[in-house]
């Protein structure tokens, strides 16, 4: 017998929907030069942020994004009751170090690039459940920390595969409050891990498309919604290659006429040489905490389904020949 | 204004306390040869488990532990509504692959060796909050996957520091249900990240002691409990070195007469050449899901505070000279 707030297989519906009262995004130069550059709070001048290493730069970018979201409500870090955060670095050190400096009680998450929707899902449950009244959910990625951890030494200048994506240098943070005005979280679907048998680390979009569509299908079925219920269903970072596969799977699975796009496709211009598109935890985090929530606030979007997508591999297990399991969590955000 | 189930600074108290209806533990040969060998469900014959790599062995150990916990209630994996799991591997691939095979909706956690209490904390909130009725919380570590990832190639045979600990090969899984009999989760304290300025990767216990005592102190203060309220306060993996520091900090912080021990001290015999003691997510996970919950069931323990402890570093950021931030979450488990 399921919990009383559960609907169908994997979806929960909130009785006291948490409100997104503030949000912030900080991005790198390349993301700032893209089509949404004016929609982010801060565009950094470079990738090192005045620090000694890219890893330190990433953690300070994430910390600054969280502080900025809180400042919009005139809160200091100590006013937040809980921080839910994750990133792509081994042992999520960007989040760990940000949580250390901010001194906010902390639950670390790892969902690869699905982290923004994982944090919103968990945060909404912990607020609606009556445990906390002010929760920050945040995620980051950094192009150069990811390149050297997942791929090749940056200085080596290895030619990229056509299907490869560009890890975004970006962070997004959302402040959830139990009262206040703004877009609210109506429901969330916790994803299952789906493995399409794909083993190419340079084609994450194809690996993740199955998980994205599985979660979207489950969400719509669980809530008995038509495919076009949402003004926008946006996946995290399938890129052009993965989005095309997702569109095929929509047809296969009978999802009719979804208003669909992907943050990895949206984040950059065609001219920016990003291969199949953007990726990384920061990709959907900054698109949500920049253009998308602004569009909700402006009334351009009423109903958004954020479906951040994560490829759950590690370099070592991929080198051992294993396929790339993937996950996606869906968060339904609506405007009052 | 805090959530209605929050007490003090960082603690939540459950209105409908989730019950631990079943649990399971699987350990490696060295853990099986220690003082609690007979208390674990399975002691593996070797570290490779018939697989090609240690990483695959770890994920199958974790998967098997989860299946075993479910079987004790005659459940199959599809009967579980949610899996909360994490491990020490980069990108928590042991948990990701276990979640893939089990097909249970999955939220990945990263709290380093604090993962068992992080999973129980989040799981108890998500059950008490009314979202799910059957949740599995699980964690694992494997000596040989951890050695080569965090330290040195195993074949190199590097001499260990006196303060170094032995990463346990072990997994533990707990089944939470909203009804049923067994030990129940009464309250939980979400930790803050505490940094004692320690930079020695071969002395994690010293790095984590501050976080452990901060969380224990906060828990007791938040609930207005005396230091000797619990029959046992057990930290995750401070080892002998870290436990001694914790005992000093108890005095400093006015925690009077705690019945205190550490899973890293308990797990092995003095003769087993484990340096300062056991460590790893599996250390507190197997001690909880072997001897400790059995002692609760038998009536030997009535009130247990599990305080799994995590060192939130990564090799790369430690090589860059940063200190080791740490965290601990406390879970109050009592017997009806």
Structure description:
The structure is a homodimer of 336-residue chains. By secondary structure, the first copy, chain A, is an alpha/beta fold. Chain A folds into two domains: 6-177, Stage V sporulation protein AD (Peroxisomal Thiolase, Chain A, domain 1), CATH 3.40.47; 184-334, Stage V sporulation protein AD (Peroxisomal Thiolase, Chain A, domain 1). The first copy, chain A, has ten helices and 16 strands. Chain A has helices at 29-32, 54-71, 93-102, 115-128, 143-150, 204-223, 239-252, 263-266, 281-297, 315-319; strands at 6-7, 11-13, 19-27, 42-43, 82-87, 106-108, 134-141, 166-167, 170-177, 184-189, 194-195, 232-235, 260-262, 278-279, 303-311, 325-334. The radius of gyration of chain A is 18 Å and the shape is globular. In chain A, 63% of the residues are buried. The mean pLDDT of chain A is 96.
Would you spell out the secondary-structure blueprint of this structure?
2 copies of one chain form a homodimer.
Chain A: E1 6-7, E2 11-13, E3 19-27, H1 29-32, E4 42-43, H2 54-71, E5 82-87, H3 93-102, E6 106-108, H4 115-128, E7 134-141, H5 143-150, E8 166-167, E9 170-177, E10 184-189, E11 194-195, H6 204-223, E12 232-235, H7 239-252, E13 260-262, H8 263-266, E14 278-279, H9 281-297, E15 303-311, H10 315-319, E16 325-334
Parallel strand pairs in A: 3-4, 5-6, 5-7, 8-14, 12-13, 12-15
Antiparallel strand pairs in A: 1-2, 2-10, 3-9, 7-9, 10-16, 11-16, 15-16
Helix pairs in contact in A: 2-3, 6-7
């Amino acid at each position: 017998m399921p919990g009383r707030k559960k609907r169908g297989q994997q979806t929960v519906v909130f009785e006291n929907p948490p409100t997104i009262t503030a949000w912030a995004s900080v991005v790198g130069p390349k993301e700032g030069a893209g089509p949404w550059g004016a929609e982010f709070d801060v565009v950094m001048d470079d990738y090192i942020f005045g620090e000694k290493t890219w890893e330190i730069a990433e953690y300070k970018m994430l910390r600054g994004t969280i502080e900025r979201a809180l400042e919009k409500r005139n809160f200091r870090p100590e006013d937040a009751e809980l921080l839910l955060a994750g990133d792509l670095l081994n042992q999520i050190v960007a989040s760990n170090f940000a949580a250390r400096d901010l001194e906010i009680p902390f639950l670390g998450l790892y969902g690869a690039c699905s982290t923004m929707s994982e944090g919103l899902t968990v945060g909404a449950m912990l607020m609606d459940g009556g445990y906390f009244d002010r929760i920050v959910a945040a995620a980051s990625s950094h192009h150069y920390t990811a390149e050297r951890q997942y791929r090749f030494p940056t200085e080596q200048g290895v030619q990229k595969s056509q299907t490869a994506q560009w890890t975004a240098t970006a962070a997004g943070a959302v402040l959830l409050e139990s009262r206040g005005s703004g877009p609210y979280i109506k429901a969330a679907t916790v994803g299952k891990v789906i493995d399409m048998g794909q083993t190419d680390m340079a084609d994450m979009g194809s690996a993740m498309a199955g998980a994205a569509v599985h979660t979207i299908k489950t969400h719509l079925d669980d809530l008995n919604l038509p495919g076009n219920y949402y003004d926008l269903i946006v996946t995290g970072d399938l890129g052009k290659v993965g989005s095309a596969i997702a569109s095929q799977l929509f047809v296969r699975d009978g999802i009719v006429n979804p208003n669909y796009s992907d943050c990895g496709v949206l984040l950059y211009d065609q001219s920016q040489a990003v291969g199949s598109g953007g990726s990384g935890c920061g990709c959907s985090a900054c698109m949500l905490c920049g253009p998308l929530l602004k569009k909700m606030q402006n009334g351009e979007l009423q109903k958004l389904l954020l479906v951040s997508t994560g490829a759950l591999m590690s370099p070592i297990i991929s080198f051992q020949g294993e396929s790339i399991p993937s996950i996606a969590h869906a968060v339904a955000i609506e405007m009052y």
